[in-house]
What does this fold into?
Amino acid sequence: MSRFERILWRDLLPRSPVFTTAEAASVAEVSPSMASRSLSMLAKEGVGVITRVRRGLWAAYRQPDFSPLHVVPHLFRTGAAGYVSLLSALNLHGMIEQIPRMVHVVTTTQRPRLVTPVGTYEFHQIQRDLFGGFGFYRGAGSFDIATPAKALFDTLYLATRKGRRFSSLPEVSLPEGFAVAELESWIRKIGHLPIRVGVEDRWRELEVKSLVDEVT
It folds into this structure.
């Protein structure tokens, strides 16, 4: 094992299984170009040490604590932001059983789908005054995730927009203590009346179904 690889495993990967070339260079005290060459060699060895996610970004994808979700914070440059939401967040919060085939990320800018060796990332644009309602999902490689209420709001909101993504939802279970007031406060922020009414209608359907399921 080379000195670079020893430092990588000892000093960098315990912090996060996802890292940049610049971070590796700093920890190993080598130039970025040398770090890039060393990382490329490790990735090409085919022993599953690391893989290149995209230019300048790497992942130790066989570490027990690695998840494609940990890549999300590294997909945004300074001044931009996004958070895990929609079906990805609903699944993590235990509100749907279906595991999404891709990671759903909400942003304020339009971005193309990103396909990487560790996962596929789909970005969904939302207006700035509806961007929020998320917090840290703590663990190795923490990332921002919508609250249960905001994840459901984002899903219902996009289901009523042009294209009607997520109009056909898997069965949704509202967790104990679900923040109804939080969801309804987001609904009130929708400026376009037809969309607000559409989201309200979808929410009422889910709320009534959830009450019926509790009784039966």
The chain has two domains: 3-59, 68-215. The chain has a mean pLDDT of 89. The first strand starts at residue 18 and ends at 20.
